[in-house]
Amino acid sequence: MDAASALRMHIVADAAVTALMGTRLYPVHLPQAPEFPAGTYQTVAGIAGYTNDGADGLTEGRVQIDLYAKDYDVLTACRKAVYDALNGWTGSAGSPPVTFQGVFWINDGTKSVPGLERAGPDLYRRTLEATIWFEED
User: What CATH number is given to the structural domain containing 12?
Assistant: First the structure.
């Protein structure tokens, strides 16, 4: 299991996230005609760590989570739930497990939704980006 998918498992297991979005957090793209609120996740970057002795088993990556809602207040609540579920989190998720040494937010902003105008004028988007440090077992 890749780190982004393992991170998704941790996010959707959080009670506050589930209460707002269920498990509607999809890899890379929203499905056709999704129920909102929903979100997507993707790996933006990643590089394995090395020492003078070779690979150290720790990888630094960057993930992006885009949240979508038809109501701005709902979007804000989803953002808070996802943010809180991951902020500084350490632990394992997935099978085989991915062990996270830390999740650190580096970007948080509201963006336009180009290409999704057909979803209606009331669709809002919030983008979160985090640096993650992890080991794949």
Answer: 3.30.2000.10
